[in-house]
Design a protein that fits this description.
The protein is built from no helices and nine strands. With about 140 residues, it is mostly beta strands. The strands form two sheets. The protein has a six-stranded antiparallel β-sheet, with no helix packed on it. It has a three-stranded antiparallel β-sheet with strand order 1-5-4, with no helix packed on it. A hairpin with an 8-residue loop joins β6 and β7. It is globular, with a radius of gyration of 15 Å. Pfam families: V-set. Belongs to the immunoglobulin superfamily. TIM family. GO terms for molecular function: phosphatidylserine binding.
Length: about 140
């Protein structure tokens, strides 16, 4: 829903340590994030790379959960997002694309946020998350 928060999934295996990553708006280039929303050094978010406080990593970075939470989501937040985990070596990065659709809905209607994800070198996956606007205290 417009005004709510949505979380775009992204995880990586931490067996080789904490790894720098970035979230990008739109398609990625071969050299990294160009339209960076936020980035980490593998341990903490680099505040100089965060474009807005609406973009948060609320998961456990130490467990490889670098899912992007967008607070107060708006219709113009709809579009493609990319998570890039910067695995050392040539062409080793893990990349996941998420296509986000945000729509207005009445408080009594359940809406579906459809997130199609794909990973480079792996098969395409899709996931759906349902949300219901609830009262806030």
């Amino acid at each position: 829903y417009v005004g709510e928060e949505v979380t775009l999934p992204c995880r990586y295996n931490v067996t080789s340590g904490r790894i720098p990553m970035c979230w990008n708006r739109g398609a990625l280039t071969t050299i990294g994030c160009v339209n960076t929303l936020l980035a980490t050094d593998g341990s903490i978010v680099k505040e100089e790379k965060r474009v807005s406080s609406r973009y948060q990593l609320l998961g456990r970075l130490d467990e490889g959960d670098v899912s992007l939470t967008i607070k107060n989501v708006q219709e113009d937040d709809s579009g493609m997002y990319a998570c890039r985990v910067e695995i050392p070596g040539l062409f080793n990065d893990e990349i996941r694309y998420v296509d986000l659709s945000v729509v207005k809905a009445s408080p009594e209607v359940t809406s579906s946020v459809s997130a199609s994800t794909s990973t480079t070198g792996q098969t395409q996956q899709s996931s759906n998350a349902n949300c219901r606007k609830g009262s806030r205290k």
